[in-house]
Structure formats: structure tokens, C-alpha cells
Amino acid sequence: MTPTHFYKQALETKRPIFAVAPMIDWTDRHCRYFHRQISRNALLYTEMVVADAIIHGPRERLLSFDAAEHPVALQLGGSDPEKLVKAVEIAAPYGYDEINLNVGCPSDRVQSGTFGACLMLTPDVVADCIRAMKKVSSAPVTVKCRIGVDEQEPEKALPDLLDRVLDAGADAIWIHARKAWLKGLSPKENREIPPLDYDIVYRTKQARPDVFIGINGGIQTLDQAEEHLRHVDGVMLGRAAYQNAGVLADVDHRFFGAEAQAFDWELLRDRMMDYAARHIADGGRLQQVARHMVGLFTGLPGARRYRQILSTDAVKAGAGPEVIAAAFAAVDFSGVAEDAVSA
Questions:
Q1: 234 labelled binding-site residue
Q2: Is residue 14 marked as binding?
Q3: pLDDT score, position 7
Q4: Is 190 annotated as belonging to a binding site?
Q5: Is the pTM of the predicted complex or chain greater than 0.90?
Q6: Is 75 annotated as a binding residue?
Q7: Where exactly are the structural domains of the chain?
Q8: What's the N-to-C CA distance of the chain in angstroms?
């Protein structure tokens, strides 16, 4: 099932979408493969990839992914409709299930390129980009934005942006429920200091019942995610899902109707060992895979030793899949209740 169907069904059947947010330097293809082994249904996102990089850079490295990652969305950065169209056309053969335009990243690098969160200031430009991308994309084209930037009044800025991009054909909107301050706050501070305003996202959905509206920002647990889904169509976890990937183990049951059952951690171990072996055989290093797995057993018996093994042994020259086996062996699975990783 593609995200196109997800978005339609989310509106028609009230079945929600659960997604793992795009995160620069984190949600690369190895991270996504790992997350997919824990949840079969969560919608996964790439890191933001700048359109210029796709046009002029190492396309295979930037765009290739394992077929097991589906459904997976490509998040693009850019503000030039022609370049974004070219990037979408280049990415098309790779088979992404969705194309998402970043209108929320507040980093200095993004600002210097006149895209990301600063695009909140130019909603007509965003609409032009969406309209152009829609003409060449067979996958749904979506927007991930903030509620405003700097001195903007969110009650005006957010509806103005949405009116324009929806008129341009955007298939869904994901909203990070914070303003971004383009000057004076670092990207990290922009994820923590501006206050969360979930209510404005709720009101946005109430005003647009026929539009898919998903929420992001500060969501730490699946219980919190369920509460948000009383008001919106989708929920997106970022760092909480990365830093404690075990929360994903209950996603399929709680949000996608899968049968409740104990998670098979040994099967996860074996699949990640096989994946790491393939990656190493292709010239990669174990650390490129293992670094995303460090937070898996946060708070569980043996988690500290698990982290130590992955953090120290995986970086050594010649490290192989046996390091993953040793790390998993440090965890006392008999003390892992089914809901211990999904709270």
C-alpha cells in the first residue's frame, strides 16, 4: 500500500498515519532499514536532500535505498521550481512513495540557500514549487512546515501558506507545531525553545476536514501520539523514535490494526546482522549501520552494556556482524515485557 492510499484512507476510514520524521544526519538508508524491521507500517522519511545535490552530486548514494524500506518518502530542500522538477524527475526511477518539500528546517545552511523554514515568508514561492513538482511526480507531493517564523503571527501565516499550497495541489500537510526563529537560535534550540502550540494544528484540521493534516514536534510516547490523533490525521515522531527505537515495536498494533504479540528481538538481530554483512561486503563499515541501533534498548536490563559494545567495538577496523550479536547478548530479554519498549 502506497502513501497515496494511506492519505486517502486516513481521511475516508479515519485510520491514522504514523511516521518517523526526516532528520538530517540520522534518517539515512541504514537507519530506515533498521526502523522498518521494527515497524512494517510506519511511514519513513529520508533526510532532507537538497535539489542541487541530486542534480549535480552522487545520485546513487543520495537516492538509493533497500526495497524493504517502503513506504518511504523523499524529502527535498529547495526553492527553485525548475531545480525541484529536475530533482523529482531524477528521483522517479528510484520509486519513492512520496515527495515532501521541506518548509521547516531553520539551519543557517538552509537559510543561505533560501529554503527550509524561511520559505514560510514566501508562500507564493512554495505554491509555485508544489505546482511544478505535481506536474512531473507520480507520487503524492506533500509539505512539512512550521506554524510560522520570526515575527509572523501563526494564526495568519499558517492558513495563508496552506491555502496557497493546497490550491497548488499539495496532497498532505505535516506541521511542526512550533515557530522557527531564523536569527538568534541554533537548529537544536529551534527544536526546544519556541513553545509548542498543538492547538493551532488542531484548529487547522477543524477548518479543513477534507485535508490530511499531520502533527510533529515534542511528541515523546505512543500514548501522546494517540491523544494527538483524536484531533488530526497523522502523527510524526522524530528524536523520540530515533533515540529509543524500541517505541516502534508497538506501532503496528496500536495504529495499524496488527495483532498484538511479543516482538521477536532475535529475528531483528539476525536481520540486522545479515544487512550489515551485505553492507560490509559492498565496501561499507559496520559503524554506518550500528550507530543507528545504539538507543534500541533504552531503560531495559543490559542496555548500558549493549550501548558500550556498539559504540566501541563497531568502530574498530574489521568489525563485522558479530558485534551486533555480542551487543544483543548483553540484553536480558527475559526481563523485557511486551510493553516495556512501547510505553
A1: no
A2: no
A3: 86
A4: no
A5: yes
A6: yes
A7: 3-256, 265-335
A8: 27
pLDDT of residue 1: 44
Tell me if residue 173 falls in helix, strand or coil.
strand
Each residue's pLDDT tens digit, 126-147: 999 999 999 999 999 999 999 9
Cα–Cα nearest to 140, from 100, 98, 96: 98
Burial state string for 150-187 with b = 16 or more CB within 10 A and e = fewer than 16: eebebeebbbbbbebbbebebbbbbbbbbbbbbeebeb
Three cell numbers written together for 53: 545535490
Candidate list 105, 118, 129, 145, residue with the active-site label: 105
At the second CATH level, the architecture of 3-256 is: Alpha-Beta Barrel (3.20)
Q: Is 105 a catalytic residue?
A: yes
What CATH architecture applies to the domain 265-335? Answer: Up-down Bundle (1.20)
- Tell me which residue has cell 528510484: 94
Is residue 43 classed as helix, strand or coil in its secondary structure?
A: strand
C-alpha cell at 22: 526526516
Q: Extract the residue ranges of the chain whose pLDDT is less than 70.
A: 1-5, 108-113, 334-343
* Element containing residue 142 per DSSP (H, E): strand 141-145
- The set of cell numbers assigned to 192 is 526546544
